[in-house]
Amino acid sequence: GADIVIAVSLDSELVSRRRHQKTEVAPEITPPPVRNEFLKKLAARYEAVEKTIWKRLERQKKKKPTPPGTRQVISAAIQLMQDRITRVNFAVNPPDILITPRLGDLKMLDYDQVEHAIEEGYIATRNKVNDIRMLLETHRTEEMETKPV
Q1: pLDDT confidence tier of residue 105, bands split at 50, 70 and 90
Q2: pLDDT tens digits, one per residue of 15-44
Q3: CA dist., res. 85 & res. 12, Å (int)
Q4: How far apart are CA 11 and CA 8, in angstroms?
Q5: Which helix (H) or strand (E) holds 7?
Q6: What is the torsional sign of CA 80, 84, 85, 89?
């Protein structure tokens, strides 16, 4: 029974612009020569650990991809089901305004990304402000025209 319906769809496959901006890699800074023997040994140890980590990462890249696990399959099925339900609801009862934040890069259990999700919602809503204002003005005009004098 609402006169104006503004809907927010969280099922958008659009990916955030913020996360995919390329960042410049800072040039490596060579540390000043170490004078203390303990610090020399400590620095050498960290370099050895860094090399080990890089080797492991390279091996991981070369591994064949594994089939999705149970959690991934269930998550994809739920996402698909939510998408279908949303499409049917919008087809039966289309909203006047639809806000779709760019949340395609978030997964079902990314609860630690709340600030990012709120920011994307704010940006998406801000982009629709003019449409909302126009809709409200049109609605007010229609109400005034239909009011008995």
Answers
A1: confident
A2: 666 643 434 455 666 656 656 777 777 778
A3: 13
A4: 9
A5: strand 6-8
A6: positive
Nearest CA among 95, 104, 128, 90 for reference residue 11: 104
pTM: 0.56
Which DSSP category does 105 fall into? T
How far apart (Å, rounded) are the C-alpha atoms in residues 105 and 119?
14
- Beta carbons of 15 and 102 less than 8 angstroms apart: yes
Nearest to 9 by CA among 74, 78, 97: 97
DSSP state of 147: S
Take residue 121 and report the two structure tokens written for it.
């919602």
Radius of gyration for the alpha carbons in the chain, expressed in angstroms and rounded: 26
DSSP structure string for 14-77: PPPTGGG---PPPPP-PPPPP-SHHHHHHHHHHHHHHHHHHHHHHHHHHSPPPPP-HHHHHHHH
Nearest to 6 by CA among 90, 113, 73, 110: 90
**CB within 8 Å of 95: residues ≥ 6 apart:** 5, 6, 7
CA-based nearest residue to 124, from 19, 8, 4: 8
